[in-house]
Amino acid sequence: MKQSKRFRAAAAGVEPKKIYTIEEAVSKVKETATAKFKESVDIAVRLGVDPKKADQAIRGTVSLPHGVGKEVRVLVLAKPPRDEEAKAAGADHAGFTEYLQKIQGGWADVDVIIATPDVMGDVGKLGKILGPRGLMPNPKSGTVTPDVAKAVKEVKAGKIEFRVDKSGIVHASVGKADFEVKALVDNINAFLTTVVRLRPPTAKGAYIRSINLSSTMGPGVAIDRNQVAAH
């Protein structure tokens, strides 16, 4: 893969094979985030699980104390009066039939979809459209709930959802490169604490295999997994 001069220059600032503390890794990622736009800071955690086994398919949510640094667009699928409650709580879009039709027509200009339990029979029919985009509401992530106002406020405040992929890796955005170091460290610690808490009893051997932090266009920086074990 051809690398740009900017990326090579950024990568030169990361010592090969060095394992950093969380604080060091955050500082290094901030230094190497040299793109012309505001880069996100992303974390990738390789877990010692078998995602093919239902009890090891890690999935969860975490409220990042400092948010993700971007406006999260929320759609609430609900009938009156819940749709109005959602709008009052800050939802960008709220309604039912008209949005089902828009989604069927290819519209999906949102980051999170929340739905009330009573409409999931109809929403479930859109699984082939919403599933691949990671937008399907799910009770485990708190996006299927009768309390739509609370759910909207939590998402807007920095609640994110994550799930392990088929390679056993969990990915998440934990903020922006222009965040203060402490804010990013707080967000990362909140995320890792949640991932560790979700360790399935059937997982054998080391649970946290590796952790890498990077900006959107920057090189990966390895974090000491033993620091997390002691965290």
Task: Write a structural description.
The structure is a single chain. By secondary structure, the protein is an alpha/beta fold. It folds into two domains: 15-67 and 159-229, Ribosomal protein L1/L10, rRNA-binding domain (Ribulose 1,5 Bisphosphate Carboxylase/Oxygenase), CATH 3.30.190.20; 74-157, Rossmann fold. It is built from nine helices and nine strands. The strands form three sheets. Strands 7-1-8-9 form a four-stranded antiparallel beta sheet. The chain has a three-stranded parallel beta sheet with strand order 4-3-5, sandwiched between helices. Helix 2 (22-32) packs across helix 8 and helix 3 runs parallel beside helix 7 (148-157). The longest helix is centred in the last third of the chain and has 17 residues, at 181-197. The model has no long low-confidence stretch (mean pLDDT 92).
